[in-house]
Amino acid sequence: MFCDFKDFAVYRFRRKGSFAKKFFVTTSLVAGAVGSAVAYAYYDPISRTKFEEKVPYGKDLFDYVDNTKDNIMRSVNYVTLFYLFYDNSVLENIASAKLEASLKAAIMSAESRVKMATEAKLLTIAAINEHAELLKNAVSSTKKADWDAVSRAVEKADKASREDLAEENEARNYLDSVRKIINEGKRSNVTRYNPLLINAVETVNKLDEQLDELKLAVRKTRDESRRINHFQDLIKRSRRVYADELKDLLPGLDGKVKDASLTEDDLNMLVAHAHLKVTQLRQQLADQQVVEEENIAKAVEEQRLLDNSHAKEELDLELKRLKDQLDVDYERRLVAKRREWEEEAEEHLRNVASAHSEHLEQVVRTQKQLCDIEQKQKVIEEAVGAERKWNSEQILNAQQKLEGIEVALNSRLAADIEHRRSKQFWIACQNLVASVVYGKKAGLTPEERRNPLLNELNVIKDSSVGDEYVQNVIRAFSEEIIHDGVYPEQDLRTRFSHVYKMARRVAKIDENGGGLMQYLTSYLQSAITFDVPRNYSFSFFESLDKIDPDVLDNYEILSRTKYFVDKGDLTSAVRVAQLLKGEPGRLARDWIRDTRVHLEARFLVDLLLAHAAVLNITTTYHVS
């Protein structure tokens, strides 16, 4: 509040130029300087002690401030300042009253002159319309054309035009006088915010717009009558040409004499000339009709250009009116704001006048608060800096996390692709296992149930591009397995049952063969001996290489082979069946070979399936 009052007081005192102004400004400057220098130290004992130690005569300065505080407060009489403003307001009222009186008188005179100019403009428009109407009637009338009335109407219209132009100039001079008074009022610091100036500007703008609109109306009326005047000029020119032709035809004929007598030859000559003239006019009419459309187009274009010109003038007038109205509204709002500011300033002045005894203390207190604010501002700036640093770190961390998320998403996308490929690879391996173990289920014979593995291997190869392990395993498949397939496990077991029966019947036949009696003896022995079910442990088989093959006969070998076949252990069954000798070995040779092929394919398929399982686990759990 003090800063506003001080600025306002300095501004008013500049206008006064009095001794009181100089005294108050000097006092305010001294108080501000002293307050800004010792305010904080005055209220802070520690700062005051440091100030007295470091600044020469600092202690004397504080003592002087303490002793003269009351005297300074009593020496400044702020009530006098209020009366100075009161006297200034009286001067403003006098200047405003003088301005309002001159403005009202000038506006009344301008309104009167504008009214006279308006009436003159309306008379001009009426005279132009009257002349156009008389001219139209005279042109359309062939026998009773009153051209004298047309001439009088022209003179009347010209006279009215001169009078309305003079009245318009006079009215605009009066409006310029009003504008001059308005500008003088705006240049004055006392009357520049008088509300009457805004109303006067608005009134002058309206009167000026009224004159412009009437001027445009006169121009439109004159343009409309110009076409008829042009037609009149054409008629006068045609009559003058016809009179010249008659003068050339009859030099002695005086067209101005009404009762002039004509001879028969002269009359015949006139009639012949008239017929010839009519013929020429008809020919000209025919020629004129040819170019009629061009003339109409030109006339329409001229009228369009004229209408555009009028429309542009109307638009310019409307834009000028809107601009003037906006200026007036702006001035009105500015005056309203100025009035509010003045009321606030007066309120501030009254508050200062009522609290002048506490003014200097308020100054010192304010300076101390400013110092405190500066200290707090430093603390706040440090806190803001720390907060900004923390926010920057958080943003950096968030950005790094975001980059990590992007990398993780990209790797997850690649992992998902690999996971889908591993699933496809695993499914293809399962299909390959089904083809090896079960073959074609729709086949009726073992040969028909053999399923070639070419398609399944191609699918696996396509789903594992770039995997050298899979490619090497696929290359390990023999051509027979790829193109012919293998016998299913169930067919091999069924086939072994037949081989088992036949091999038991010839179990006593060695490699050298035998006669009919040996075959009969072997058959009878197989018929009277029974294969008692026994359990053979795998641990025993694992130590089979330590057993002498000669100890086991064909019956024991067939029994062991049948046990492993029934258990589904074709690998152990083939190993044991290889020990068969003689005719049983020959009978089991094909079964052993087909079973080996089956086991070979099954082994390779198990390798692929295990690799597929490893890939599936790796892509699922992201194990690197």
UniProtKB/TrEMBL annotation:
It is a single-pass membrane protein. GO terms for biological process: cristae formation. The keyword Cytoplasm does not apply. One of its GO terms (cellular component) is MICOS complex. It comes from the Eukaryota. It is found in: Mitochondrion inner membrane. InterPro entries: MIC60. Keywords: Coiled coil, Membrane, Mitochondrion, Mitochondrion inner membrane, Transmembrane, Transmembrane helix. Residues 197-224, 312-358 form a coiled coil. Pfam families: Mitofilin. PANTHER family: MICOS COMPLEX SUBUNIT MIC60, MITOFILIN. Component of the mitochondrial contact site and cristae organizing system (MICOS) complex. Belongs to the MICOS complex subunit Mic60 family. Component of the MICOS complex, a large protein complex of the mitochondrial inner membrane that plays crucial roles in the maintenance of crista junctions, inner membrane architecture, and formation of contact sites to the outer membrane. This is MICOS complex subunit MIC60. It comes from Enterobius vermicularis. The lineage of its organism: Eukaryota, Metazoa, Ecdysozoa, Nematoda, Chromadorea.
